Amino acid sequence: MSKQPRVSNHFAKTGHIVRDSALGLVTETVEPYLRFNHAIWHNGPLTAADIELARLRNARQVNCVFCKAVRYDIAIEAGLDEAKVEQITDDFDQSELSPREKLILAYTDHYLQQPTAMTTEFKQRLTEEFSAAEIVHLSLAIMLCNCFSRCAVSLGGMPEEDLPRMQISVPE
Amino acid sequence: MTWFTEANTQQDIIDRAPTLAPAFKEFYDSFWQLSSIPPSVLELCRLRVAQLHQSDYQWQHAQFELSVEQRQSLSQWSKSAVYTQTEKACLAFAEVYCMDPQAITDAQAEAVKSELGDAGLVALIEALGLFYGMTRVSQLWDL
């Protein structure tokens, strides 16, 4: 993995975490991205705590150091605490997380590892717990988090060591 | 029909979340208006991602019209003369991206940058994330 960033945005100095990043170079997509990201965190049927569980599971699997360090304030306000975050490990099925939270993590793992391998029984458990709109929301949230964590890795310059926890707001 | 709704296309399924569907569509559509990457290059990459995932649903979809030769030769793109240097640089990058983004080399990134510039590399990486992600989502949904 490249230790140096492959691209730098020398142009934008707006004070905005996304617009000033390399993503700001792609002017056609940056505002639609921010609006879609806002919708994922604020407008869908799942809570921000639900989405944060999936985001952090993805971050650990993709090994995006930045994504792993971030905690979104709205997820904490919605009930996600560090005691829960510490249970987002490969052994989450044995954890004290709720059955609904475990389903979110298991669905995320299917996306990350074997999207064609969901069993009929697992699908039935999902439909008993989540509405169609919630399943679409979770799927698009995982897709978006995965897209931009892989983006961060692909652009290079990722620190090798874990970073301290950073509580921030969803970029608007 | 998928396992959680009677809808049977990606767009119809996404429409089951009406508070998210318009923002998703705007984001997806923005990639096909880019000044830094021709839509034909993006379509080749989208289709290569579909091939690598063995996703017939994504393969059958046509987001941008390509020549028959370019579609038919895609699995053998590195040996084919129907692809430009720009297309080959992006396809090489796309294949490694799908396997492991940590394995992308500086030379592969530089090859894309020399053809498309800094903005083109960033746009390609974002687009690959979208194509990779929506291919996997369509597989989760049994499409």
How does the SSE layout of this entry go?
The complex is a heterodimer of chains A (172) and B (143).
Chain A: H1 27-42, H2 48-62, H3 65-69, E1 70-72, H4 73-77, H5 82-85, H6 99-113, H7 120-129, H8 132-154, E2 166-168
Parallel strand pairs in A: 1-2
Chain B: H1 10-14, H2 21-30, H3 39-53, H4 56-60, H5 68-72, H6 85-99, H7 106-140
Helix pairs in contact in B: 3-6, 3-7, 6-7
Task: Report a brief summary of the structure.
Chain A is mainly alpha-helical.
CATH class of chain B: Mainly Alpha
Structural class of chain A: mainly alpha
Q: What name goes with the CATH superfamily of chain B? A: AhpD-like
Helix content of chain A: 40-55%
Distance N terminus to C terminus of chain A?
Answer: 30 Å
Described by strand count, sense and barrel closure, the largest sheet of chain B is: none
> What radius of gyration of chain B results from the CA coordinates?
15 Å
Described by the principal axes of the CA atoms, the overall outline of chain A is: globular
* Shape category of chain B: globular
CATH class annotation of chain A: Mainly Alpha
Mean pLDDT of chain B: 97
Largest sheet of chain A: 2 strands, parallel
CATH topology of chain B: AhpD-like
**Beta strands of chain A, count:** 2
Largest interface, C-beta within 8 A: A-B, 52 and 48 residues
* Strand ordering within the main sheet of chain A: 1-2
Strand segment tally of chain B: 0
- Give the helices and strands of chain B as they follow along the chain: HHHHHHH
Number of domains of chain B: 1
Helix content of chain B: 55-70%
Characteristics of this structure?
heterodimer; A: 172 residues; mainly alpha; AhpD-like; 54% helix; globular; B: 143 residues; 7 helices
Structure report:
The complex is a heterodimer of chains A (172) and B (143). By secondary structure, chain A is mainly α. Chain A has a single domain (32-168), classed as AhpD-like (Up-down Bundle). Chain A has helices at 27-42, 48-62, 65-69, 73-77, 82-85, 99-113, 120-129, 132-154, and strands at residues 70-72, 166-168. Chain A has a two-stranded parallel sheet. In chain A, helix 2 (48-62) runs parallel beside helix 6 (99-113), helix 2 runs parallel beside helix 8 (132-154) and helix 6 (99-113) crosses helix 8. Chain A is globular and about 50 Å long. In chain A, 40% of the residues are buried. The mean pLDDT of chain A is 95. By secondary structure, chain B is an all-alpha fold. Chain B is built from seven helices and no strands. Chain B has helices spanning 10-14, 21-30, 39-53, 56-60, 68-72, 85-99, 106-140. The mean pLDDT of chain B is 97. At the A-B interface, helix 1, helix 6, helix 7 and helix 8 of A face helix 2 and helix 7 of B.
